[in-house]
Amino acid sequence: MPTRVHLPTAVAPLALERLHSLVENRTVYNLAGFELNVFETHRTAHRVPLRLEGLALTTMLRGKKVMHLPGREAFDYLPGESVVVDKDELMEIDFPEACLCQPTQCLAVAIAPDTIRHTVDLLNERYPKAEPHQPWAIEGPEYAHLTNTPELTDTLGRLVAVSRTSDINKDVLAGFTLQELLVRLMQTQARQLIFHDYARHLTTHRFAAVVGYIKDHLAENLTIDKLSALACMSKATFFRVFKREFGITPVEYIIRERLGEAKRLLRHPLASVAEVCLRAGFNNLSYFQALFKKYEGVTPGAYKKQMVA
Asked: Does the global pTM surpass 0.70?
């Protein structure tokens, strides 16, 4: 299967080993440093309370929930999304569509505080972020509800797989994967912070200015020389720290932004593929078509037909 921007952003649904109840049936895997929970619900329910020990990364696998968390407006929780829940935070959950034929399923990784602290301290000591005043950390409530990145999803899938094996080395393997999961989580939050909310950070984060410039000049020739100068870094440092902080290279980010713009433009009934190619910043039609199909799974023309049909 080709690599795509819209890779399934939820871990594949799991088959539960036991079914004890129709509401929040729970299967647990206990490993060193964390607890992996799989919850499955087979009937509609409202305001079901749940607490988890330790900070938890929850991810929707299938179905729909409505989440009620302290101090926040209720929100829909769908496959392809994750929510970070603080230690002992009370979740109250609605299951408006759950049934035996269409169960709701959610994954929750509850992580020991020492595991988080060790990973965060290691990153801040050896691999600092671009801005010293914004060190590595799991962000609070404002950035707790996330759209999964392919990288976060892949790591979650591997953590589930190793947790369910009988390998005698599973705790060691899971420990490495859990550290990667924490890094991917913080990178995902950093993308939300800077890629989607860059305007708030233009004066405090050098990469916010870079992201703003990219978004404003997508159709132009964007060079690493120009972007690294905006960040006041050498090219090598800029490339390395950008990837460390966000989990993708500057070039990959530009490609994703241009493809996103191309998808937006293709929805216009009168826009031709060739016109969209140029307006989105691609100067070669064949390259644009090949790249679009690689990431989206269909050609630009086929995507356009789907959108305007």
From this structure: yes
